[in-house]
Amino acid sequence: MSAPCEPRVTAPASAPPPSTLQSPPPSPPPSPVIAPAARRPALDWRIRFAGLSLIWGFSFLLIKVGTEGYAPFQVTFGRLLAGTAVLVAAMAMRRERLPRSARTWGHLTVAALLLNALPFSLFSYAELTIPSTLAGICNATSPLWGMALSVVALSEDRPTRRRVAGLGVGFLGVLTVLGAWQGFSGLDLPGTGMALLASFCYPVGWIYVRRTLAGTGASTLALTGSQLFLGTLQLAVVTPVFTSAPTSFPLLPTLSVLALGGLGTGLAVLLQFGLVQEVGPTTAQMVTYFIPVIATAAGVALLGEQLAWNTPVGALIVLVGAALTQSRPRPAAPPEPVAAPVTARREGGEAPADARREPGEASVAAPPEPVADRAVPPGPENATRTGPRRAQP
Fold it and tell me: Which of 22, 38, 87, 331 is the most buried (most CB within 10 A)?
């Protein structure tokens, strides 16, 4: 949720050392300098992808357990405080600098409200009356809200027919989850509404970040850590106003809140940054579709929550619709290079250059290799495409 770092410009592998730029090169010329291979992460990206899915999938269970011992605002405050501590430690290790512009801090304050303080609090209040499984499924509607915003021209990401169809399929799934044909009987409408509103906050926040924080010059980690810090300050002001200080600190809810912040808000952000850089935003955002599955399994297995048939069926329809809204048209294939005609050898003369080329020898005029898709860190200029399309619970 911040601008990506500027890429470092490195010298070519065959460039001479700086000292040789001031004097003629020695004879014989030095051998080319081979750049060391990039250091690979200790864990395979698939393992980290699975870990991120589990962390975010279990977040709804942790919220539910946390609200059994603390008020919703207290759960959110503890979550943001623990998450900020993790990112501050990571920033200190990497020697990241905080943003210096007052305008940047102002935009980060709004982003912290839309992407952290408000949705986290809404989910905590929602789970006072609805199961954690339903909250996890509501979280999966975030790509649908983002698509709806693009339809009404609040985003630069213009819709296609397939994506509009995905929007309709997704909201059909929402109606299935809610049991619309039964008149929403047995459903807590205020709690469900707060969970859906929390999911709506994410695409609004992403669009805001994309339009206001692009090109700030600060790193992704620095802006995200600063944003969480501002969200923590917001909850530090709000929490004492609406709640009283806890009289006890029950063990299980306390551990749940700490895990929710340290793992679900702190470590998960670092894992996602690494996945985006290694495998690209398209693959990294697929974690969104595993979250409701894991949240449902955790709620049923560990909390004993009951499921009607329409809940898993509707969740599957929601995921299909969300996947359609994220589909992109395939880029057009580059045109095939036209082979130069081979001219016959003239009488008494030499053959043209193309005709003289030995078999297997590359042509000087051969087309360049296509540029591979680069993995871009989740920044404001692509926040609606990466970050977050992952909807952090």
Answer: 87
Residue partners of 124: CB distance under 8 A and separation at least 6: 63, 66, 67, 72, 73, 75, 76
SS3 312: helix
pLDDT in tens, 51-109: 999 999 999 999 999 999 999 999 999 999 999 999 999 999 999 999 999 999 999 99
Q: Exposed, middle or buried by CB within 10 Å (0-12, 13-18, 19+), for 269?
A: buried
pTM of the model: 0.73
390, two tokens: 């992952």
Residue 27 pLDDT > 80, yes or no? Answer: no
Strands (DSSP E) contained in 72-204 are none
DSSP for residue 116: I
Distance of alpha carbon 230 from alpha carbon 112, whole angstroms: 6
Residue type, position 116, single letter: N
| Distances from the Cα of 216 to the Cα of 30, 137, 209, angstroms | 41, 35, 11
- Alpha-carbon gap, residue 47 to 50, rounded angstroms: 5
The token pair at 318 is 């929601």
